[in-house]
Write a structure and sequence with these properties.
single chain, 306 residues, alpha+beta, Uridine Diphospho-n-acetylenolpyruvylglucosamine Reductase, domain 2, Uridine Diphospho-n-acetylenolpyruvylglucosamine Reductase, domain 3, Uridine Diphospho-n-acetylenolpyruvylglucosamine Reductase, domain 1, 3 domains, 5-stranded antiparallel beta sheet, 4-stranded mixed beta sheet, 18 strands, binds uridine-diphosphate-2(N-acetylglucosaminyl) butyric acid
Length: 306
């Protein structure tokens, strides 16, 4: 990676050795060697196109959920996606929310609700960006992104700018065509379907989901759900049934509230997370034969841990 090339292109926008822990929901991990803010979708697309052309590796950071950044940090360019414009297009039953990929999903869902639109109430409980949710088919309470996405604008490494519909996104549980082809595309913005509804009912539903979440999921820094649910079961239920709630490695604990959430008690390292995740995965496999799959992505240099 040639620093001169980066400095020539990005000048003052380029920062060096930027700590990432506070930009992640688990609050662990080292620094980004190079760091850039992208403030709108056009800038994000230009930055990515440049880095692809120069073959400079990069990672796009959203709101830092569903990732575990290594203590050694990230030896590439981290683009912080701050493209967060949201607007509502009101066209009766064909209404939609148009959001840039760095917009916070909860904010987009709440804006629709405040204007009396139903459909995205479930999304008011999901931390993360619109882009992350579209990429990973985020979901809760029986709904998921695949039921609401109308169109997503992407920049594809080989094919340039494209708009994909839900079918083209090839959705499956917590996955998509883009997730199955990592590094080949960047999500720029998305269009989510909403319908006019009853304001009181929408409010009730949001309060109900929020109360359920508070009751069943712990507060405090964590990655999000640690593992995907295996078909027909719940990772949390399985880990709990083996008596693993409360298990600790260093500063990370399997939450006593929900066993699929591993909480940073304040002093955790990424290494603690990595070790606890592998410990739980190993015990579950030994005792049940089920190999739990991580729902998050490992970011940065993990060579020492392997
Ligand atoms: N359960 C236990 N012990 C636990 C946790 C759960 O016995 O420690 C039991 C519950 O009693 C329930 C069942 O397991 O009978 C399922 O639990 P829950 O309703 O909490 O749902 P989940 O399957 O653990 C999924 C999603 C969450 C989403 C909730 C609510 C995954 C991996 N998790 O959790 O999504 O918020 O449903 O809809 O798909 C996420 O994906 O990051 C996420 C947080």
């Amino acid at each position: 990676m040639d620093e001169k090339v980066l400095l020539k292109r990005f000048a003052q926008r380029l920062k060096k050795d930027v700590p990432l822990a506070n930009l992640t929901t688990a609050k662990v991990g080292g620094a980004a060697r190079y760091f850039l803010n992208a403030v709108n979708a056009a800038q994000l697309a230009e930055d990515v196109a440049f880095l692809w052309a120069e073959e400079i590796p990069f990672f796009i950071l959203g709101s830092g959920s569903n990732i575990l950044v290594s203590d050694a940090g990230v030896d590439c360019v981290v683009i912080h996606n701050k493209a967060n414009h949201i607007h509502l297009v009101e066209k009766g039953d064909s209404s939609y929310v148009q959001a840039e990929s760095g917009a916070i999903l909860i904010t987009a869902a709440r804006q629709a609700a405040l204007r009396g639109y139903t459909g995205l109430e479930w999304a008011t409980t999901i931390p993360g960006t619109v882009g992350g949710a579209v990429y990973g088919n985020a979901g809760a309470y029986g709904a998921s992104m695949q039921q609401h996405l109308l169109l997503v604008d992407i920049l594809h490494r080989g094919k340039g700018c494209l708009s994909l519909n839900t079918e083209q996104m090839g959705y499956s549980y917590r996955s998509s065509a883009l997730k199955r082809e990592p590094g080949m595309a960047v999500i720029l913005s998305a269009r989510l379907a909403i319908k006019k509804g009853d304001k009181e009912r929408i409010k009730e539903l949001i309060n109900e989901f929020s109360a359920r979440r508070k009751q069943t999921q712990p507060p405090g820094p964590c990655i999000g759900s640690t593992f995907k649910n295996p078909a027909g079961d719940s990772a949390g239920r399985i880990i709990d049934s083996l008596g693993l709630k409360g298990t600790r490695v260093g500063g990370v604990q399997v939450s006593p509230v929900h066993a699929n959430f591993f909480v940073n008690e304040g002093s955790a390292s990424a290494r603690d997370y990595y070790d606890l995740i592998h410990l739980v995965q190993r015990i579950v496999e030994e005792k049940t034969g089920i190999k739990l799959e991580p729902e998050f992505e490992l970011i940065g240099d993990w060579k020492e841990q392997a």
